Amino acid sequence: MSGRPALNATHDPAARSWVTSANTGGEFPLQNLPFAVFRRRGDGEAWRGGVAIGDQILDLVPLTRCVPFDGEAALALRAASLPTLNALMSLGASSWSALRAALFSSLLEGSALQSTLIDCLVPQVDAEYALPAAIGDYTDFYTSIHHASAVGRLFRPDNPLTPNYRWMPIGYHGRASSVMISTTPFQRPVGQRLPAGADTPEFAPSARLDFELEVGIFIGPGNAGGVPIPVAAAERHVFGLCLLNDWSARDIQAWEYQPLGPFLGKNFATTISPWVVTLEALAPFRAPYARPDADPPPLAYLDDALMRTAGAFDLQLEVLLDTATMRERALPPMRLCRTNFRHAYWTVAQMLAHHTAGGCTLRPGDLFGSGTQSGPGPGEAGSLLEVTAGGSRALTLPSAETRTFLADGDRVIMRGWCERAGFARLGFGSCVAQVLPARAPAEAPRC
User: Which residues, listed in sequence order, are joined to residue 271 by a DSSP beta bridge?
Assistant: First the structure.
């Protein structure tokens, strides 16, 4: 695939940073350098771009004032220091790579810039985060055939997959306005639901609130005038990946989704992790894209020879749950799922190519969700809908509580990382949010 980042000096597993916490096997070694938007917690500072290195954040605003780089790297640094990363995302892969190389060199052990950069570090424990970009549009896909099959069997046992599933990446347009940064709590959604055996719906809080384990994809340069993006060039338009939880109210969704798809069952909250890991950082963790021999090959506009060799990402994912009772008793969170993004039936490049095939214009900072990522084996189900077989099989937690769907006070924790022999392990941080009780009904105005 033309434009895919290749391995270079920034992937050297032997490289060490003068920021000593980056050398201890954590999530953010020198070979990672993901981007976020942050500020020091509680003092009202302006939001600005930062880069994770060990347990620190390299604050890009004071770094920009020092003017340590030149050329494309200097331009990209200025764009990355703004209150959103949209300007950086718009620059394209050449600028991203130049900035990454300059940051890598300046943070490398023995760098002449150490004395300049050391005053630009902010401890991550002192930071709070905002959304990485001003998200103009958000599209959620359905790329895990294992999830689609498991959910389909709950409702259509004889024909779980829709006829179009193996032919195109299926998606729907979500609400960018309800995308939230990790640690932001949200109220249980309220909407119409149809109780079992009833003929009339009721308006009430969701009783079947669920998580969905997904990967978020941030778009870089868009496509002018709605010109379709070829699958072979699609990754030139992808800035990086994050973790994403597409919360779902299953009872509201079940009543409303026909004929036009998700609405109130999905539009109340989507949580993303603050750190965006660039495609260049992920170059060592690419994997072949393949589908079963019996399945039809993709249509020509969704196929590319190089994509087949390394179109997937070997990104490990897990979901954990803790409850208010578990936290009170200091019990550790319970793992609900561990799977891998490489199991996705459709690639990131195919999602982007299909999205633009009909003339849709993408813009820097647009966000894709991969759809729930479930794997083929036991323990790889990326939603409670699958884990509990539609609510028919309750989970028993370490606190002796049971769950079929989420209760008020529950907190869902998602994590992601890449590791491969001969390369540094990279982490994505955490995607975390807690469920609060539904809002009380608004009182009617008094006359």
Answer: 180, 245
Whole domain around residue 68: which residue ranges? Answer: 9-130
In a domain, 4, yes or no: no
Residue 2 included in any domain: no
Q: Which of 147, 237, 354, 355 is catalytic?
A: 147
pLDDT in tens, 84-118: 999 999 999 999 999 999 999 999 999 999 999 99
Q: Give the pLDDT of residue 328.
A: 98
- Least-confidence region, from 147-161, 233-247, 275-289, 374-388: 147-161
* Domain final residue pick, 93, 114, 130: 130
In a domain? residue 276: yes
pLDDT tens readout for residues 168-196: 999 999 999 999 999 999 999 999 999 99
Find the helix packing angle between 71-80 and 93-107, rounded to 10°.
90
pLDDT of residue 442: 67
Under 8 Å CB-to-CB from 160, ≥6 apart: which residues? Answer: 148, 149, 150, 151, 152, 153
What is each CA distance from 149 to 145, 161, 370, in whole angstroms?
6, 6, 16
Active site residue 146: no
d(CA 433, CA 212): 12
